[in-house]
Design goal:
The protein is an alpha+beta fold. It is built from seven helices and eleven strands.
Length: 262
């Protein structure tokens, strides 16, 4: 198994570019802005997809860059949110602290190699089925993601609409158990890197192996597309972290999500 260095800045730059690409798949052109080597994405107030991604990965960040980033979000009524790679330009963190940003969450970034000759389990598990999401089912898929993440039955229709209106390039999947759609997943592929995200399972259906089945399905699909690398972001120590480890992923670095209100 390939081992990765947690100090490999070039690898981090590639992964963060893929992360930004996946975020851009959901953004309307009028709600997307290139800034400080990354992208600011707006997908509705309080949406988990509303954030700046890849900031500070290609050189120093100036105060004027952060001014523009903050204006992008604040003009839309949202806090300025940055998903900051811990291998970003070293001076950026101090600037963020000085400006009064607060930490929202920490995530671990995981990665693994892919090879077209690799084999994956043919069957996902008893009672489990994986299905590509048809265009007509995008809203159902978007609603299920939000329900799985939030644990709430009702999903804000604004957030559902944003998620459902993704650009070409996104591959989305349902995971079913006992014939019922209870889980979601997605992949964005760019420059040979498959970024896996959108892993959500309804609380009542957890513990049956749905997420691991969806991870393996997407890895097989990414290998078919010629990707040589796959990455994902997980909550440290959670079930997703363990499932990605089971699928051969290695922890390489962390992200710190920070936010500043207007």
């Amino acid at each position: 198994m390939t081992r990765f260095s947690s100090a490999d800045v070039a690898l981090a730059q590639r992964i963060e570019a893929g992360h930004a690409h996946s975020g851009k798949l959901f953004a309307h052109p009028d709600a997307l802005e290139s800034v400080a080597g990354g992208w600011a994405v707006f997908q509705g107030i309080d949406s988990p997809m509303t954030q700046a991604i890849g900031i500070g990965m290609s050189g120093p960040v100036r105060p004027a860059d952060l001014d523009r980033l903050e204006a992008f979000f604040h003009e839309r009524g949202s806090p300025a949110v940055i998903d900051l790679c811990t291998l970003a330009e070293p001076g950026l963190l101090a600037m963020i602290v000085d400006r009064g940003y607060v930490v929202r969450e920490i995530s671990n970034v995981m990665v693994r190699r892919l090879d077209r000759s690799e084999t994956f389990p043919d069957k996902p598990g008893e009672g489990i089925a994986v299905q590509a999401v048809a265009e007509s089912d995008r809203r159902s898929w978007a609603r299920l993601i939000i329900q799985g993440f939030s644990g709430e039955e009702n999903a804000p229709e604004e957030h559902v609409a944003f998620l459902a209106a993704s650009r070409p390039g996104l591959e989305a999947f349902f995971g079913s158990f006992g014939g019922a759609r209870v889980s979601t997943a997605a992949t964005g592929a760019e420059a040979g890197l498959a970024t896996l995200f959108g892993d959500a399972t309804l609380a009542s259906a957890r513990g049956h192996g749905l997420q691991l089945a969806l991870i393996r399905h997407r890895l097989r699909r990414a290998a078919e597309l010629g990707c040589d690398l796959a990455s994902a972001s997980v909550v440290p120590g959670g079930s997703s972290h363990r499932n990605y480890e089971r699928a051969g992923f290695q922890l390489v670095y962390a992200r710190i999500m920070v936010a500043k209100r207007q």
